[in-house]
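Z., the sequence and structure:
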Amino acid sequence: MNRRPTGRDVAERAGVSQATVSLVFSGGGAALHRVSEATRERVLAAAEQLGYQPQAAGRQLRLGRTGMLLLAVPNILGPFFARVLAGAQAEAAAAGADTSQGLSVVVSSAWDHAALARAARGGQYDGLLICSPDDSQLGGELPDDVPVVFLDADPALGAGHPRRRTQQLDVGAGMAAAVTHLRALGHERLGHLRSVESAHTFRARQAGFEAAAAGADVREVGVSVNGGLEAAREAARALLAAAEGRPRAVVCDDDIVAAGVYHVAAELGLRIPEDLSVVGIDNIVAAPLFAPALTTVDLPGERLGAAGVRLLAALTAGEAVPEPAPLPTRLVVRGSTGR
């Protein structure tokens, strides 16, 4: 076929009416129950053979939905956000297969609050997934009629709003587990490379650190986790350069920052973990490849992205959705920590 296949082509191939094809690709619900399972499978097989995809514009006119979801992340280069995107896309694909309506996740990291508000009002997206936003006032700038799910964010953003929910990670408990692990190894002189970003996730990490480190000898240095490896190296030098009072263990607010500690430790001739124990947060794909492998708190980014898509789909369908429980985190102990 030298043109784009249409619903009429699918109907002819499957031996059904165009109305039946429309019902199959209607996105589910009561209408789809009027089509037998055998007919539905025949229509889907014909569509696959022809390479047919229902046009988004027509679907929007018919259903009031586009099947497009916007995932906004602070930094597309961040390994954690890649995990969130992977989980969101996998869940969207599964949801599309279940409902015969394609769902797509579009990711953006070049946004500010005004840009998100414009995207929400434009009608191009059925809803927004906003991951690790910096500003607790963000919710007030978004239109009330657009479903929004905040990921790894301040629970106040979704509180009391029927079309907004917040899916948290229990990052505070993860940070507390990291500090408790170090203290159980006998480390009472602790360093903390603390994010200077204002996002709720970093406030939660700080609270978890302070609670678990109470009574220990603590030295903290601020670092921009969005500044990459060089910012991490600079902060690590500030923490480790002076031999007097140097911490014997360092907790980092993410794994890229921990990589900076590895670099500076090598420059200073410090062995990990013999001279310095190091713990990160995120459990990025490269964490086991550090030498030695990095002890870190696993933040389940894939589960976070998938949970966000499920919540957004339910909100879009007009369902009553309770505020979800935080997703658990876990400490993964590897070779970078010792006595």
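Confidence is low (pLDDT under 50) at residues 60-64. DSSP finds eleven helices and eleven strands in the chain.

Let me know what you think.
H.
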